[in-house]
TrEMBL record, chains A, B, C, D, E, F:
Classification of source organism: Bacteria, Bacillati, Bacillota, Clostridia, Eubacteriales
Stored SUPFAM superfamilies: AhpD-like (SSF69118)
Membrane-traversing stretches: none
Carboxymuconolactone decarboxylase-like domain segment(s): 34-118
InterPro entries, per the entry: 4CMD/NDH-1_regulator, AhpD-like, CMD-like
Protein name: Carboxymuconolactone decarboxylase family protein
Position of the signal peptide: none
Organism, scientific name: Fusibacter paucivorans
């Protein structure tokens, strides 16, 4: 029962945070690595995102920073920039999060993140 | 005058955020790369940390995440864990920031950050 | 009940793989981030290490490679080099795993891993 | 003569592991950095891949892990996922290798690797 | 006045190094993160690139190496490979810089950089 | 005969660049991974460092940048900072190389490199 609960809790949280983008990622794993989708839902969203102490806005800010910093994760940044907007961070908050990273990771990765955000913001404007 | 202002603004902000730890870093650069200390004060603290939109608590949360994610920056983590406490994040907030990183960077770097925090918290308790 | 099962399954697997080194890591988290220890047991060892398809030897070989490649994880390498010996990889297998990484990550990180192994092998010889 | 031997040994091993994909990489270097292609054949394949102790399956498993972990190497992953199939790893082995990396490098890079594998498996099905 | 000077100095240096490519990057930031463009001009080009001791050729060689090594920065590599040509490095110097990195970062990232250079050299030939 | 030549060429170059520090690294590999030492001599120093086009000063500048950028390679930085001094780079050149990296990799890794240099310069002064 608990396993179901973790999955269910995770699925609700995934919907709340990443909306259709998160579900699309999980669905695209179905015919290659369905357990990977299950772990994302159960562990990342069921166990971690549902914890107390930090708000969803804070959690997305941290996630954006971790994605920007490791580099090469533009696809995941795309999903979580949309997620950050979903949970109430403004476009300005998101760009400012990236700017705060400059002294710690340098300009190149910050530029990659900002250009990814630019693209997401434009699509978001079109679809809303 | 503006250059002085950036330096002065940065020095104030450095004191506010990193306290004695930040000044110790800058001082230890004096006889090898004084300009590096100057850029940290002027650019990181004078230009970036003084920006609006995000609070100092948010900025330290982002900095901690960027340091944890790139790895091998235990010395800088040490200074900024103390800085995070200085600007009002609790020990629980800091540990929770690291836990939020697990799905995005894996356990090893999170463990390194948590053990660094453990050490800083212990010293902090002793000296306060 | 399932949660207990994941924890119990993970604890058994942790004992099998990392022996006392793994338990020491979890124990040292108790007074700072006990949930981190719980996730390592439940998720890393209960969910992932217990999966089928690959043997424990293969899993440790993969883990060693992931730790070597990201760099700055000497503490985790130490635990998993001992773990690799526990599950039946020979000292030669471990060194050869590191040598296979040279073309993909370069000499410096391979040197760091080999010197960590040298240290673990020496302690292992002394204590066995 | 020995130099020729290393090159010849490497060329044979490259054909055995990476098949046409590896040769295509080397050929595309001809008019820009031919020595780079030579070093890949002589050193990576002639010196390292021909060593004893580990099987080609184990070597590809290690290579896949090193490529996944450092990130941003989707082109090389593509060649080595095909290589892993060539030397006898199954699609399930490859996906499972990536899943074993989750606790050590987090979900984003694992997702990148799995989606790259999905693409390679589809092309492989079409061409075989 | 000094701020203007840093910006003006940086703009001149940016033109000297990266030519139209650098200006295009800054312009594309205008409607999303104009301050990021300002910092690149003021700090990266106004403060750092204008320093003494090293020549522009040496500075571009260092920048190319830093971009290659962190990975996932192909867009920035593209701009700085063109920049390296602008300040007088030859195509051979650039490729040789990448080859010197092999023992320290491995083949995959070097391959990514060389293929990026191949593309830039081809466009450069067409437009000059 | 050619193999011997690569080894001999590499050994001479290693002596020229890294002096006693490089030999100490190779010697410390003897009873754990002697082939790793052989590859460093044959490939890194025999094949790569002996190439034309770039000077040894340029090669060490590139190596220092690659080591700084990947992080966690303080031991290798130590050897190559001494190597850079051996081939004629000044202390100022070395620090300036690190400062040029700030916009591309951020302050933390630059600080790590500068503090490593500080230590090497002090020992160098004592022993010369």
């Amino acid at each position: 029962m608990d396993k179901q609960t973790r999955y269910e809790k995770g699925l609700l949280k995934l919907s709340e945070v990443d909306g259709s983008g998160g579900h699309a990622v999980v669905r695209s794993l179905e015919n290659i690595a369905p357990d990977l989708g299950k772990y994302i839902i159960e562990f990342a969203f069921g166990d971690i995102y549902t914890r107390e102490t930090l708000s969803l806005k804070q959690r997305e800010m941290i996630t954006l920073t971790a994605l920007l910093t490791q580099g090469g994760c533009e696809n995941q940044l795309r999903v979580h920039i949309a997620g950050a907007l979903n949970v109430g961070l403004s476009q300005t908050d998101i760009v400012e999060t990236f700017i705060q990273c400059i002294p710690y990771v340098g300009f190149p990765k910050v530029l990659n993140a900002v250009f990814t955000a630019k693209e997401v913001f434009q699509n978001h404007a079109v679809t809303s």
